[in-house]
Write a structure and sequence with these properties.
- Pfam families: 2OG-FeII_Oxy, DIOX_N.
- This is Clavaminate synthase-like protein.
- Keywords: Iron, Metal-binding, Oxidoreductase.
- With 357 residues, this protein is an alpha+beta fold.
- The chain has one domain: Jelly Rolls (Sandwich).
- The protein is built from 8 helices and 19 strands.
- The strands form 4 sheets. An 11-stranded mixed sheet has the order 1-2-3-4-5-13-10-17-8-7-6. A 4-stranded antiparallel sheet has the order 9-14-11-12, with no helix packed on it.
- Helix 2 crosses helix 6 and helix 3 crosses helix 6.
- The termini are far apart.
């Protein structure tokens, strides 16, 4: 429980009464990211009991597009082990990691070296290439999909090189899918749909488990315009589950103002945000909010130079089934803002725009 504790510009508070949800709030603007205890939803036996949590989640997704979830059911030991194995992978020699290099946006699997991806909201290929050359994302990633896919295969390091890496990540992938499934049920309830509305539209596990490593970097390299560890962007799918270390750097743009606020790490929680396809599904009732990763405070290594600390995070990009048609939900407006789109076509297009081949 976090009551009245300050985190930089953010402040954590607790609202007393029948609905008790902590919030991380910027006192000057009123922008807040609520911290929602998911245990009540998970333990509830009746729809009525679940509605309180479901409404809180949907209310937050209508405003900031972000929540923190506590009591989410993923054991701390499992999270810690996933981070440990991720760190071990990124510590491998570059020549080993490059044998697993990401190859195709349709697959979206494998190792992505620093500078290869430039996340952005731009869609023009030349504009994105210019951004990548001017201000590449200072991160490396490992992308993992469902392991039984008949067409696209995961790219695993040898067991002798990275012991238990594959088994750890496959187990974590399944664990995150299960939480995503529960969260989507809560969203259905919060939108006054049947709780199982999304079940047959998200059950094929067409997700992406992304391990992220932000190596230390000279502060001067992040001083340019549009320079960041990861540029401002929205995510592509239904929900993103983000587990971050204590270093920080994630910032969320306040809708309507363009002001960025820190999504400060809170131990034991997972940051959850709405992706583009869920926003389209809901006719923009639920917000897919821009966010970025900036450098945390640096420390001096000489009289003239500072270096940022290393940062780790794990993102689980949850998607609808690739063959699902995303069209305006029946109770999210009389007129659809967007034409229907197939999940796979949308995600492959976005990935094709942000990567260099």
């Amino acid at each position: 429980m976090y009551i009245g504790r300050s985190f930089g510009r953010a402040r954590v508070s607790r609202t007393l009464g029948c609905r008790s949800f902590a919030t991380v709030q910027n006192a000057s603007s009123g922008f807040k990211i609520p911290v929602i205890d998911f245990a009540k939803y998970r333990a509830s036996k009746s729809t009525q009991e679940k509605q309180e949590t479901a409404r809180a989640i949907v209310d937050a997704f209508k405003t900031s597009g972000f929540i923190y979830v506590s009591q989410h059911g993923i054991p701390a030991e499992k999270v810690q082990n996933a981070f440990k194995k991720s760190a071990e992978f990124f510590s491998l020699p570059n020549e080993v990691k490059e044998t697993l290099a990401w190859e195709d946006p349709r697959s979206n699997r494998g190792y992505v070296r620093i500078g290869r991806e430039r996340v952005t909201q731009a869609t023009n290929a030349d504009e994105i290439a210019a951004l990548r050359n001017k201000s590449p994302d200072f991160k490396e990633t490992m992308e993992i999909g469902r392991d039984w896919d008949s067409e696209w295969k995961n790219m695993w390091p040898e067991e002798s090189v990275a012991p238990a890496f594959k088994s750890t990540m496959l187990d974590f992938f399944k664990t995150c899918h299960n939480l995503h499934f529960e969260l989507m049920r809560s969203i259905a309830l919060g939108l006054d749909l049947e709780e199982t509305f999304f079940d047959d539209k998200i059950d094929k596990q067409c997700h992406n488990l992304r391990l992220l490593s932000y190596p230390p970097i000279l502060r001067e390299k992040l001083n340019g315009v549009d320079q960041a560890r990861a540029g401002a962007h929205s995510d592509y799918g239904t929900l993103t589950l983000l587990l971050q270390d204590s270093v920080g750097g994630l910032e969320v743009q306040e809708p309507g103002t363009g002001i960025y606020h820190p999504a400060t790490p809170i131990p034991g929680t997972i940051v959850i945000n709405v992706g583009d396809l869920l926003s389209r599904w809901s006719n923009d009732v639920l917000r897919s909010t821009l966010h970025r990763v900036v450098a945390p405070p640096a420390h001096a290594i000489s009289e003239t130079e500072e270096v940022t600390p290393a940062r780790q995070s794990i993102a689980f990009f949850s998607n609808p089934n690739f063959d699902a048609e995303i069209a305006c939900l029946p109770n999210c407006g009389a007129e659809a803002k967007y034409p229907p789109v197939q999940t796979e076509a949308y995600i492959v297009r976005r990935l094709s725009e942000t990567y260099t081949m």
